[in-house]
Amino acid sequence: MTRNAREILLLGALCALASPAFAAGWQDQVSLSGAASADVRFNVEDYRGAAPGDGYNFAMNRNDLDLRLEVTPSEKAIAVLDARLRYFGFNEATRLSETTSRDRLDPFSVQVDEAFVAVRGVPHPAIDLKIGRMVQTWGSADMFNPTDNLSSRDFSDPVDYSRKVPNQMLQVDVYPSDWLTLTAVWVPVFKPSQLPDSAPLGFGVERDAAGCLIAAPAPPLRDRADAQALADLFGAVNPCALNFGDPEVRTFGVGRGIAESQAALRAKLQLGNLDLTLSYYYGRFGFPVAYTAAAFVESSQEPGKMDVRYVAEVTYPRMQVAGLDFSYNADWLFGLGIVGEFALIFPEEIVFGLRAYQGGNRLLEMASVNVPSEPFIKATLGFDYTFTSWLYLNAMWVHGFFDEFNDVFGLHDYAVVAPELKFLKDELRLRLSSVYDLTDGSSALNPTLTWVAVPAVEVTLGAFVFGGSTRPEDPLDYASRSKFGQKAAGRSVAFFKTRVNW
User: Fold this and answer.
1) Is residue 34 part of a domain?
2) Is the separation of the CB atoms in 191 and 181 below 8 Å?
3) Cβ neighbours of residue 428 under 8 Å, at least 6 residues apart?
4) Is the pLDDT at 6 greater than 90, yes or no?
5) How does the average pLDDT of the chain come out, rounded?
6) Burial profile 389-404: b = 16 or more Cβ within 10 angstroms, e = fewer
7) What is the pLDDT of residues 160-184, one digit of tens each?
8) Per the domain annotation, does 126 fall within a domain?
9) Phi then psi for 402, rounded to 5 degrees?
10) How many folded domains does the chain comprise?
11) Which long-range contacts (CB under 8 A, 24 or more apart) does 357-361 make?
12) In a domain, 28, yes or no
């Protein structure tokens, strides 16, 4: 049985379990909810792609069917299955023989976000257990949660920052009192974040129309003299004489031993209008950090030219995180909501190594600390406030973005602002979300206009626009890359979405 056939069988079983005939025998023990959506996106620029002029075309033509099944065979137990059938909407057939396959003409996948069993009051009335495939979301702030590290981010859809990579977990909740909840989570196998399609462009080289090398990404070297020596090595050669291929980027593997497991503890206190949480995490950082690089220069079959092969490795550093977060509803200040989140991170030191060879002979060798072992802090502070029935504002200061780990790039500061206006008895919503990098001046804008056509049916028009230079200010300085301007951040798109929930 093929993988697709197994996935369709799983989805069919999910639907069958929730059918009226089946549910009639289970009365109120079965619950099915879900959503169907369509998402069409269009690239509104032609300079942020892999090659100049690549743009003004459709970037997405996707359909999703999300189904969530909950079965409660007893008062103390619940089983949950959350699955998604996704059609990508683009033909992938590149050969005539492939046009005979529906899977190539209309590719799809079935994804399972959650599949777990939870029991309450076992083995003690004050203890709950949960085991299976799930995601964890810790922290008090909206989305920017430095204390939230158990579930890596899923950035395969750059417009949706909220998704996570599911993983197998064991969770234990203990309730010593009505104001205190203790949580322990163990994750046997580490899974990294899923990156957007644009991520490899962070290592890409640029060429002009004649194929001559224009720019290559700077390695994370702290000593400018080392960066200059590397630039001089290749700068001494005519850039049109270098056949510089796109770098080959490998991930330095994480093993499957017990030492690679993740674990976390949390104590959550409810003290009136104040929710206060203390947490601890042991594991790895979910985003890759530059580890090694090697350049191999060989004679080319083309007269007067040389072939350059660049191989890089990235790794996922170990870390320990001590966290504190809170949310407070200030009734005395017109009901202002205040959130704060602080993560003290103890990182594994990462030393970046670089070598260059020509004809098998080593030309140079360098080493530089990319991630120092000194502890550092990532933080979020913010507030939300409802001014009127039609105006809401959420604003935050963020120190350290999702993928920042105090490497040579550093930790940037960000202003996040998301006002929302409602019209026509909440049937029409205008949200103007934006993130501005206070360190380098780049930005990401996400305006959306949502119309609730009928209850449970939404139609959305929107855009996701990146601002900032696509090239670093200093080609020798790894840290001078623009956070949202660099091509690796993604494409600027306009989108149209429809969604029905039940």
Assistant:
1) no
2) no
3) 422, 449, 450, 451, 452
4) no
5) 93
6) ebebebebebbbbbbb
7) 888 999 999 999 999 999 999 999 9
8) no
9) -50, -50
10) 1
11) 357/294, 357/295, 357/296, 357/297, 358/297, 358/298, 359/297, 359/298, 359/299
12) no
